[in-house]
Amino acid sequence: MASPAEKTAWRYGVLFCTVLSACAPVAPSAVGQKAPPGAHPDTCWSTVIAPARIETISEQVEVTPAVHDANGQILQPATYATETRQEIVSPRRERFFQTPCPMELTPTYVASLQRALQVRDLYAGPITGTLDAATGRSIRAYQLPLGIDSADLSLEAARKLGLSVLRR
Asked: Which InterPro entries has this protein been placed in (predicted)?
């Protein structure tokens, strides 16, 4: 049977995944979650999806040409129609990034995360040890300069904040 601390860690891990759509273990049975090819099975991942950019182009297209007399005078002007089409400027892209696994996101870890974000003037809420919406917004603000537009904490950001160590 699991200890109370393990149960709490598991609950917070589930809460993190549910509230912030975070990672899940990379096991093939994980519903709706996937990892990049070759990812180690003991790692957790999330994605940032850049939607496709679609441009609408409208053009005037000649339907019937102008009719001219022998002297070049216009007897009947040309007629035009507007044609509109959409073109994909850039396709949808999915970018993976590694995250701390849910079992690592204990209340103590999350409280340390909140303090680290608070010191950087990115989090103004109370230190609760809970991954709430305010914490998610702060995570996103911290990670944007890293090129990660997500409220899911990346392992890269956690390491830069001094919260996670490099594994050898």
From this structure: PGBD-like_sf (IPR036365)
